[in-house]
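User: Hi! I'm working on a homework problem where we have to compare a predicted structure to a textbook description. Could you give me the structure for the chain below?
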Amino acid sequence: MNAVVYQGEKDVSVEEVEEPEIQHPSDVIIDISTTAICGSDLHMYEGRTDADPGLVFGHENMGTVEEAGEGVTTLEEGDRVVAPFNVACGFCQNCEEGKTGFCTNVNPGFAGGAYGYVAMGPYTGGQAERLRIPFADFNALKLPPGDEHEDAFAMLADIFPTGWHGTELANLQPGESVAVYGAGPVGLMAAYSADIKGASEIYVVDRVESRLEMAEDHADATTINFEEGDPVEQIKDEHGGGVDKGIDAVGYQAIDPDTDPGDDAYDPARENPAVVLNQLIQTVRPTGELGIPGLYVPSDPGAPSEMAAQGRLGIDFGKLFEKGIKLGTGQCNVKKYNRYLRDLIIEGRADPSFVVTHRVGLDEAPEMYEKFDNREEGVVKVLLEP
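Assistant: Happy to help. Predicted structure tokens:
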């Protein structure tokens, strides 16, 4: 079958690879109908991980069941499903507590597993024609038959639950104000989730105007372009003493607004992995709360500074302590939210598909990786169709 295969730094290609097979009675094989490029894929694409050439990317996957193992009881051939990016067993302590992003069985020596991602277990990615889903009764969320809401349901694999998770980590309550740093797909979903939850004021910080326009149009957000001035001061000019809650949807590749923006191309030399966290500490009021679904890593061999490469962030912990701010961190436990969010879509109460800007064939993946990596205007969420 054809698949998107990592070849090396900023180099992916569509190659023929072996088809997946049932390896355990609890497995299913799905024909992929939609898969997506995620910001997390860029960490590998940019050569900033230990990913080896030959890895098939893709952890946001949906399709129809082609074959089911003899132990599968709730799924059958032809069922339409979406797979959480987390691979989880369903029966370890963390899974039983709903912490499926930190399953202790699927990836020995590491808390959590995922498709097509370095260090996240032996699970081939779904930017391909077919995919094996282990523990399928637990991991595959059944969808209505047909092709209705295809783009919206595809968001259930990762970014809609992850954006929602950001609001949960921040303990956002109806009527509270919130600042979301980052207007990529996850940041947009966090702002959208805050709007659904009844936030009184939503501020979204980014530099890409097309993304900020989406936040205005779909999350009723006040937008802040950090290239036009200190985002902390811009928000405080609007909201006085600081917002109730903050969400970091950027992670360790945050751009420092005090560096020279140069041209519009994304420049890793502008990165400062602590800058957004420190801005949020300043943005949120005393005794407020922060949710951090943005990705941080213990080390980054491709980071522009030695401190960042060692995972040492330089957070202003003294100010965090002084203000009594609480932190919630960690990758999303997709299973905790995706059934509820699926039903919001079915009932017409949510439509996260507004972030989708491109749906292209699998053969166009190399070009779209380059555009997405450059943070080009108008490129927000890219779906691939085998």
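For your comparison, note the following. The chain has a mean pLDDT of 94. The two ends are 10 Å apart (CA to CA). Good luck with the assignment!
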